[in-house]
Design a protein that fits this description.
The complex is a heterodimer. Chain A is mainly beta. Chain A has one domain (12-134). Chain A has one helix spanning 119-134; strands at residues 15-19, 23-31, 34-37, 40-47, 50-53, 58-65, 67-70, 73-75, 78-80, 83-86, 91-93, 96-98, 100-103, 108-110, 113-115. In chain A, strands 2, 4, 6, 8, 9, 11, 12, 14 and 15 form a nine-stranded parallel β-sheet that branches. A six-stranded parallel β-sheet of chain A has the order 1-3-5-7-10-13, with no helix packed on it. The longest helix of chain A is centred in the last third of the chain and has 16 residues, at 119-134. In chain A, 39% of the residues are buried. By secondary structure, chain B is α+β, with helices and mostly antiparallel strands. Chain B has two domains: 2-112, Probable inorganic polyphosphate/atp-NAD kinase, domain 1 (Rossmann fold, 3-Layer(aba) Sandwich); 122-247, Tumour Suppressor Smad4, CATH 2.60.200.40. Helices cover 16% and strands 39% of the residues of chain B. Chain B is built from five helices and 18 strands. Chain B is globular. Chain B starts with a strand and ends in a 7-residue tail after the last strand. Classes of the chains: A mainly beta, B alpha+beta. Strand 2 (23-31) of chain A pairs antiparallel with strand 9 of chain B, so a sheet runs across the interface.
Amino acid sequence: MIMFVKDSKIKPEDAETIIGTGVKVEGTFNAFGDVIIKGQLVGSLSTENDLFLRSSGIIEANIRAKNASIAGELKGNLTVDEKIELAATAKVSGDIYCRVLAIEEGAILNGKCKVGGQGPVGIKEKKKESKTEEE
Amino acid sequence: MYSYIYDSFLADKKYAKIVSKIETKLASLGIAGKKHQLSILRSADEMVEEILKKESPTIVVIGSDQTFCRVALPMADTNAVLGFIPTQVDSLMANLLGLPVNEYACDVISARRIECVSFGKINGQRFFSSLEFDANKTELTADNKYQIIPKRVKTVKVINLDLLQFQKMSQEPDWQRLASNPKDEYLEVLMGTPGKEFWFLKRKEKRDSLFFVKKLKVKSKKSNQEILIKVDREKIVKTPALIESTKEDLKIIVGKDRLI
């Protein structure tokens, strides 16, 4: 949880959608590929692949992604299937759920943090189990 | 069976040598066919309709990108195959489809490497390559789910089959993908500021954002104002406009070095 891993598996070259600095997106944004955000996004965001929030990027949304690399500002919950990387410039206000978390020195994180083998999928399964027990 | 549509400008005497070289090459490859000459009196639509009455023909356009796009539109969802012999050195379609110019393209036609590409629609009318319009004063709603608000971008380009940049292949590729993918059900929306060249002043183009959409609604922020959308680099459509991807497709002959 402490070390920022440099040899990351997340490759920005594979990015598909790019929200640049000259654009603001509002609403429910569902992408099928990788997403790079350098501009603003308000609403909700989900992608089956990876999310890259650059240092100039601002997100006010709940996010669901496979991997996330955060260097900008995020207000909202971040649910990731695999790995979250928080760079030194990252400012996160919200809860985060993932299997692996890497935080660089200087990153700001205000919120609950659930990291572990089962990740968000495990959380869903637990909810299902508790429901069946109640029945 | 091959049918060849000759662009209207090829009727000019100065192109006689090029045309003759192409015809000789086609004959030597055994793919010579009927010649159809476009003119002011004969439109591409009529000509294609006439050719399509025959069973699954191969229509080859000899000439410019604009004519190639115009011929492609009425060929959507038919069994016909479309080929292209570009006669202009700076042909964008030649770059995209991996075609050499003039008689050298005949070998590609003969090899018949075929790809299926789709079309886009704007207000119910097909387009083949791309649309371009001013980003200022525009409201964009994508897939009925989210709004794209342009802030510091000047131009929006909605792409079916085109380069992922505003100008031709002049810039070094800083993005990994150079061309759109016309084989999927999405349209690419490129936003940015095109480059400018005026005397000694040069402004490099800036590509800012890239989205993939199935549906895009475009309207003006002011109800009494219309925004002009340039379709396939020639026709103009006014807002409000609904831009969609379609499942209609077309078989086209491509070269080995294609970008799509």
